[in-house]
Amino acid sequence: MAENSLSDGSPADSVEAAKNASSTEKLTDQVMQNPQVLAALQERLDNVSHTPSSYIETLPKAVKRRINALKQLQVRCAHIEAKFYEEVHDLERKYAALYQPLFDKRREFITGDVEPTDAESAWHSENEEEDKLAGDMKNKVVIAEKEAATAEELTPKGIPEFWFTIFRNVDMLSELVQEYDEPILKHLQDIKVKFSDPGQPMSFVLEFHFEPNDYFTNPVLTKTYKMKSEPDKADPFSFEGPEIVDCDGCTIDWKKGKNVTVKTIKKKQKHKGRGTVRTITKQVPNESFFNFFSPLKASGDGESLDEDSEFTLASDFEIGHFFRERIVPRAVLYFTGEAIEDDDNFEEGEEGEEEELEGDEEGEEEDDAEVNPKSLLSLLVSLVLKRASLPDDHVISKKPFGHQPLALSGCGEKLQK
């Protein structure tokens, strides 16, 4: 009977468990009463939970006062930087006037109003094979022109569909263009950028010049982008230069039945009393590039826009900036596709850097997830319990726990992994 009870292990197990619990409690008390262990644990917790803001909070008032003085200096730096960008805007205006004669000549070549001279049309390729091929093609063209002089009137004027081709080549623009927009954009002859006059609020205007067409009577469609180049009083440290804050379009004088920004739908209505049915027509908005000239307005009354509206407005600002900085100054390279290849290569480089940074950030997040103040205490308790399961001659050391560096440094190594 006694043997059975011992073999079952119930009384013996209970006694052994009680002894282990008692040993564990004693060891825990010994550990938690050791000032060296507590100091080491506190230091580790302080390192784990350290943030810049928490560090600042621990500084004396005199040091905080000096930090506030540095922030005052930083605000003054932001205002000087704003002045710098204002002068940059003045320089842009100055050099825009120097570029304009070249852009005017570009328009004349595109429209065919002026034919470039041999000197103006000479272009030397870096590839000799291309030069040779171009020479052979030129000879063939000369022969063909001599043989078909009577067909001279079939030669296209200028560079057909120049700007429309750019719209088609650039993804940011082609996404906005619908099939029914294309015939209209083929009448686009020029795009210009005009900067605000000296002394006026910073802004720029995009001018889209069209030849006479069957769609609207406006010779020029405009889009004005308003800019801000001063630190925000509520958050002056976020200032990084001029930013577009709002934009205005223009009214398009559509010819009858040619407005592509709306579509007419038919809807049947049933009379509740008589049961008769009638068909009504109504106009509803239609997707079109020409909605570009009827933009959303940035909220100026303190009310925030919804998420979709904010995204639409931000995309509009990005497109306006792209016209100003890239499309207009380098139009021929977007027509040939050379600038697009450069942009793609630049974006690939940025994406590679972003992926690398994201990988680093993920690693940091994993580290942060592992470095938890509670985990340190859990590791310490686990260590105590593990030691409690050892034979008695190993459980209670003659030396204080703080004199055994491997145990505590082992916790630290786990936290750092």
TrEMBL record:
Its predominant location is: nucleus
| Biased amino acid composition, Polar residues | 20-30
What keywords are assigned to this protein?
Answer: Nucleus
Example GO CC term: the record gives: nucleus
On the tree of life, the source organism's domain of life is Eukaryota
Note the InterPro entries from the entry: NAP-like_sf, NAP_family
One GO process term, biological-process aspect: nucleosome assembly
Locations listed in the record: Nucleus
Q: Where is this region: Disordered?
A: 1-30, 343-372, 395-417
Family of this protein:
Belongs to the nucleosome assembly protein (NAP) family.
Which PANTHER family does the protein's record reference? TESTIS-SPECIFIC Y-ENCODED PROTEIN
Put simply, this protein is called Nucleosome assembly protein 1-like 4
Organism classification, top ranks?
Eukaryota, Metazoa, Chordata, Craniata, Vertebrata
